[in-house]
Every structure is written in C-alpha cells, then in structure tokens.
Amino acid sequence: MEVQRPDFKAILRILLHHRVDFIVIGGVAAVLQGAPVTTFDLDVVHSRADANLDRLEAALAQLEAHYRDFQDRWLVPQRANLALPGHHLLLTRAGPLDLIGAVVTGQDFTELLPHSREVDLGEGKAVRILDLRTLIEIKEKLGRDRDRAVLPVLRRTLEEQSDS
Amino acid sequence: MSGGGTVSDAKEQDPGSGRELPRHSADKGQADDGVDATLIRWMLGMTPAQRLDTLQSYVDAVLGIRDGSSET
User: Fold this and answer.
1) Alpha-carbon distance A13 to A4, whole Å?
2) Closest by Cβ to A36, choosing from B31, B40, B48
3) Which ipTM score applies to this complex?
4) A2 falls within a domain
5) Does residue B58 sit at the A interface (CB-CB below 8 Å)?
6) A&B contacts, CB < 8 Å
7) Would you list the DSSP string of A34-81?
8) Angle at CA A37, nearest 5°, toward A100 and A32?
9) Quick one: which of A34, A47, B5, B36 could link to A109 by a disulfide (CB 3.0–4.6 Å)?
10) pLDDT digit string, tens, across residues B9-53
11) Domain range spanning residue A85?
C-alpha cells in the first residue's frame, strides 16, 4: 500500500491557493482550538456551489487526489459526486483528505458557516474552522467509539476556553 | 474541578512528616474523566499555527518511529 505522510499545512496551502471555500472540521479543527488530540487526516466540508467546485477540482488535481479505498485503481473524484452531500475519503500527495458534502446532522457548508470562524495560520494564511461547540454536537450525534473517546477532551477544552 | 470523588478521601500522607499530600491527579489538573487539563492549558497558550505545528510534529514522530526513519 502506498504511503503518503500527512502534511496538513501543504493541503491547506493548496486549497487556499485555489481559493476553495471550505470549513475544517474533525481533529485538526479541535487541535487548532486547543484540544490536545491527535489525528492523521484532514476533514473538510466544502462548499458545493458551482464556482467552488471548479476551484476544488483544480486544487484536487494539484494534490493528485484519488479515492483511498480503491487500492487497485486510481479513481479521481468527479465533479458531479463532489456536488452531492456524501463523503469522499481521498489520498493526496500530502496525505489523507476527507471531503464532506454534509455532516451527520445534515448541515452543509452554508449551514455550518455561522458556526465557524477564521483562524490565522501565519504567513498571511487564514483557514475557516468549525467551532468547538458544534464539533462536539456532531461527534455526539455520530456516536462511534472513536468519537465518544475524544468527547471528554473536547468538552473540557470548551470549559477551559470559557474560563480563560 | 469536576468529578464525584472527594479530594480528602484520596489524600496520602508524607511518610516523613506525616502531613497530608494532595492527590496526584489533582496536582496534574486531571478530572475523574481522565482529562489532563494541564495539557489543554498548555495548548491554549499557543497560537493556532503553533498548535498545528505541534500536531504535525507528533504525526511525523509517530510515523517516523513506525517507518524506522531517522526523522525522529
């Protein structure tokens, strides 16, 4: 199996370079807000607006993105599928990237936008991330063991944020 | 701190002086759910860019160990 080491900044840099509208969710969003958790992939909810799909396609081409669950075939995400609310588990030359049309609560980019904020990553780069409270709600709804395991850390981080 | 247990129940005695010592987990800012608040406060003391760098370093180190590379 091919191995690409995750390089979160490299993926984010290319998405930003192509002016893709997206919200970082999952473990990376949690870390950016101070939660001491770990993850090996980058989860992103992308805007499914027509113009954004054009930009996203260009970014994915530069990232050499393909579906990681088809080890024997190089399947590239198609624009028509990216316009749907499903999940796309991709492997890029900078590591795993999960593109999500809509989260488990049914919310898509537009609906999650009010629950997001921009954070500065330095070098004039800023990314939009889902706020911790909404992230917790999504993980509660998902209810998988791996989501439940991280919930105490996320809740405590939210408490500590409020206290500080 | 959240949690159901009382600190006094868990206090230990210093064998030298006989004075009560605080519970170790209380020292670490650790609640009964096992969450170490000192780690959270450490992360909250960083900028978002530094937090991402910390995650990246961790991932690099773990995969470096797995792959037996010298990057660690």
Assistant:
1) 17
2) B40
3) 0.92
4) no
5) yes
6) 72
7) T-----SSEEEEEP--HHHHHHHHHHHHHHT-EETT-TTS-PPPPHHH
8) 65
9) A47
10) 334 444 455 544 444 444 556 667 789 999 999 999 999 999 999
11) 8-163
